[in-house]
Each structure stands twice: as structure tokens, then as C-alpha cells.
Amino acid sequence: MEPSSPRAPASPGCVPASSPGL
């Protein structure tokens, strides 16, 4: 997990919180 992106999950299958539309 990158400290610069705590919101982005380490799982590639999960979408980031920045894209709620997906």
C-alpha cells in the first residue's frame, strides 16, 4: 500500500473512492 494514496485499495479489482461512478 502506498502512503501517498491511502484511499486507493491495494486490490486491483477494487475501484478507488475517487471514481464513485464506477
CA-based gyration radius: 8 Å
Q: State which percent range the strand residues make up.
A: under 5%
Q: Got a strand count? A: 0
Q: Please mark out the parts with pLDDT under 50 across 5 or more consecutive residues, or reply none.
A: none
Share of residues in helices: under 10%
Q: Main β-sheet: number of strands, strand sense, barrel status?
A: none
Query: What is the general shape?
Result: flat
Specify the number of helices. 0
Our measurement of the CA-to-CA distance between the termini, rounded to an integer number of angstroms, reads 21 Å
The average pLDDT is 58
Structural category:
little secondary structure
Please state the oligomeric state of the protein chains shown.
Answer: single chain
Region (Disordered): 1-22
